[in-house]
Fold this protein.
Amino acid sequence: MTAGVEETAEVPAPGTVTLIEGATFCLSSLSGDIVPGRAEGLFVADTRIVSGWRLEIDGVPVEPLTTVEDERFRVTFVGRTPPRSGFGDSTMMVLRRRYAGAGMRDDVVLRNLGREPAGVVVTVAVEVDFADLFEVKEGRVRSHIGASVDVLPGFLCYSQSQGADTRRVRISATADPLITPGLLTFHAVVPAHGEWSTCLAVQAAIGDRPVPPRYRCGEPVEHTEPARRLRAWRLASPAASTSDPALARALTTSSEDLGALQIEDPEHPDWRVVAAGAPWFMALFGRDSLLTSWATLPIDQQLALGTLKTLARYQGTKVDPLTEEQPGRILHEVRLGRESDLPVGHGRAYYGTADATPLFVALLGELHRWGLPGNELRELLPAADRALEWIERYGDADGDGFVEYQRATDRGLVNQGWKDSFDGVNDSTGRLAEAPIALAEVQAYVYAAYQARASIAAALGDATTATACEGKAAAVKAAFNERFWLPGQGWFAMALGRDKRPVDALASNMGHCLWCGIVDEDKAASVAKHLLSPPMWSGYGVRTLATTMPLYNPISYHNGSVWPHDSSIVAAGLMRYGYVEEAQRIALGLLDAAEHFGGRLPELFCGFDRTEFRRPVPYPTSCSPQAWAAAAPVSLVRTLLRFQPDLPNGRITLDPAVPERMLPLRVANVPLGEARLAVEVRADGWQVDGLPDGITVAR
């Protein structure tokens, strides 16, 4: 998952503390300081509005003791002042309670543990560079021309204009500070066994539009919108109990992360979507948001609905080579920073992706099976049909029946599938694929899109559309199995490249094809065998590229690393075709990896074999938390339950294949239509309670 340019990420310093709330995030050191010159800061609207934030007591930095992460959006830094000369211990405790959300609030509390009052000078040094997120991420921040700082009564104000674009930040504090450019100074007396405190507030403005802060000084945090939203998310989320502590921890962490990663369209605040991941991808992505909300359906179908509605609002309407917009195309990402080209509402969109458009239609079909109300379905159908038109007109530009991609200019992504690094599509000789490129998984998504549209049409009594889409799905499946299959190797090509030559590397892409059902039954056994073979199976997950391939590199982004979302999709595909033991092995491997990462699966980790290292090796620039990685444990549980709703046809499929170590397993409060299900699986059987009226269970 990358942005609209290839890049090398700047790595946050070890021990970096990350806070996220909506599209706001804050990276700081373990002391609470934001250290200038590092990939740290407070980011709002893809702009770093604070690049330095350093607290000193009597001219000395605070010594960190610990951090307490209360929620994803708030943290308490616990520290002390160094002992004064002649004393063995410090008597001054320092608490910094930080809240990030459309700005930042810092409550600084000095607690005097001594027997006499303490006079102290407290300073907060501030730096602001208004750097674009990608400048920070890629380590190319430069001095910004035109930035100014002003001291106004009660405020420290920064501003910068570049053409018509103006960014501002305003910093204020309680306890009557002396404010000078870049510095707030407090002269305080802390009573013996007493406290002194101040509340510092950071507020941003983009153009003439102030960004209302989530947390205001003096306002109880429990009454803020993020706190209320998080409470509502927790109350509505399913509850799981299991004998497997790794699964329990992973599910709890996933639910919290998915709640924290949600953002909203400012014009439609009731449309919730999920950002791709922290720290660098706190924005709407097409592919990522679609796959994440799909995997999260057992928790909340409203997230998928909000994603579809928001992406439909941004759906392409014209041809623009610079942004790769085309009529009916679903975007790749929306950004708010300066390093973008096309304004769309309050954001900027780039459309260079081949897979988001068919995934849009496929997710609508899946949401329909989960009981999407008819009025919502009819509202989204025109966007789905425009997406299918894009597939046939622009996606399949040469009319050969396959969706290909080729960037329109040298500014776009070279590769436009989920393996979108420049070298992510390569063959068994190590040669990079040349555009136009038809990815295997994209054809699978197209097949799923036609199947979904046929199912919707049948439910609505539109036999003509249903028959037409079923025919198109069958044609895609037949052509795929004929052209992508490599009988000599026993696996599917990763892609067809220029001149329709197979890109024949052994890779994980074909697991997505199992998931969508495009693989012929007579080929599935060979695919399953190769996906779990030693070159592909690391012991913790499925590698993106086999160890036998020339470009295999376990520390690469897409050529041998393990991506949890990818492996979870492979597991779902294997289970779909009846390969139960193989799907279980992937699920258990990923959960073991999650346990080593403290219960949180990262965006990716290195593909070293489990027999070589006792724990998975982290990938240095992996996002954590990251949306589709957070959704992977939820998807795995659904896979192991073999749970598939089909409310339009009055049934659900449920046939649990849960590994023994997880038993007994109970999942309650699962939303389905207007009902809430509870599924319990024991060694001697299973049961389901709370089914909607008129719904039967099939195995």
Summary: The chain has a mean pLDDT of 91. The first strand starts at residue 17 and ends at 21. The first helix runs from residue 133 to 137. DSSP finds 14 helices and 36 strands in the chain.
